[in-house]
Amino acid sequence: MRILRVGDHKRMPWKNGGGETVEIAVSPEDAGLAGFDWRVSMATVATDGPFSIFPGIDRTLAILAGDGMVLDIEGRAPVLLTMASDPLAFPADIPVGARLQNGAITDLNVMTRRAGLAHTLSRVDVDGNRIVALPSSTCLLLCHLGTLSFRWDDDTHALTAGDALLIEDSAGKVLEIDGEAQYYLASITTG
Q: pLDDT-based confidence at 126, cuts 50/70/90?
């Protein structure tokens, strides 16, 4: 179990050079954009344009801030993604264009290498105490809004907005959390 503080997240340019991404976690650790097995990041999108292409990668996107954007995903009807939308999964190796609705947005991006890995991303609102079953061997919980505390191995820790909790070898375990917050849970499985 590792707590990843918002101030320690790695900032780096987008693969296509069109902006900056904030890398929360990647595997293997310190992997570059061409060599990761999985990656969780946030990015601010300030202009319309194409997404970077990542061969052999699946991606899920959620909007964290802003009025949303329309995604033009090759082979699909355009879709409006907002903060109220469920996270959207799509291949990262097909052309995707983004059109902002009303100014810049910030998104959460989870990517896994299709050959051997899969992932899910869910958004959860917390008001009080909750038990979270960890569904896979690797889970990343990102505190998006508010503050939450959690118990792990009889110790209590706190996460504030932007902090993340990375738990490996977590399948079948539970996490006791408490607070008023919204978090995203990325679950990464082998398959």
A: very high
